[in-house]
User: What shape does this take?
Amino acid sequence: MHIVKTVSELRDAVRAWRSSGQSVALVPTMGNLHAGHLALVNEAKKRADRVVVSIFVNPTQFGVGEDFETYPRTEHEDQQKLNATGADLLFQPAVSDVYTPDAKTLVSVTGLSEWYCGASRPGHFDGVATIVCKLFNMVQPDVALFGLKDFQQLTVIRTMVRDLNIPVEIVGVATVREESGLAMSSRNGYLTSEEKTIAAKLYQSLCAAREAVLEGGQSYQEIERKALQFLQESGFQPDYFVVCRASDLKKADENDKELVLLVAAKLGKTRLIDNVCFSRNPPQSPFGKGGSRRQGDLNAKS
Ligand code: PAF
Assistant: This one.
């Protein structure tokens, strides 16, 4: 695997591939790679001839008092994992290579970026949209892959790509979970072993709410209220639990079929997020009952 630090080295490598007709996938990350990231790289390898992985802890998406300084940086281990997975190029720039000190441009997906995680982390999604837009301009990939775990982030990026006519296909890849159901996340490393056991209840709350939605008979408001109560009683400080339309993350009503349940909650010092997306449409198979619980089927070409 080739490792580059500067935008000009990156562009030289990508240009050489392009001149021989090869397609390019981008997997943007902030490092501290786990099985969820490696699933993105594996999916990228199926979708393009060459895979670029970026590792950049992006300062503009962290708020004041958040964990930018302490965010786990595991350069050596990350390089080994990417080598073993078969990425072609690692782009690992310094902050000064990415942002000029007097940068004046921000990409903002209005509305969506202020809801849910955006309400608790003002400016976070502007930082994400700006860095992802910059990475798209630097790499000019054919396809870019993101985890479905960060569902609101994925929706912000899809919306940006649509609104700015960026010629890239956005692919969402299913969340990788530990055996307990806990979604893989770099921030899981902040949890004590006791907290890790409790953390699995976040996914349980989503599964229970999904069953309640599919069963019917309760309002979405009631389902959200019960989930928040369950989380509070389990030791979390819940931020939000919402039943949304998968397409635009507006609050769902009874007519909506493609849904996503989004949750964020603090456990001790650690803020965790998770979601499940599913369909209320009757299944095709005569053996199924209710809607579909599949995740990872929401990939639309942008
Ligand atoms: O999901 C992440 O790791 C980051 O938000 C991303 C997309 C790499 C942008 O910094």
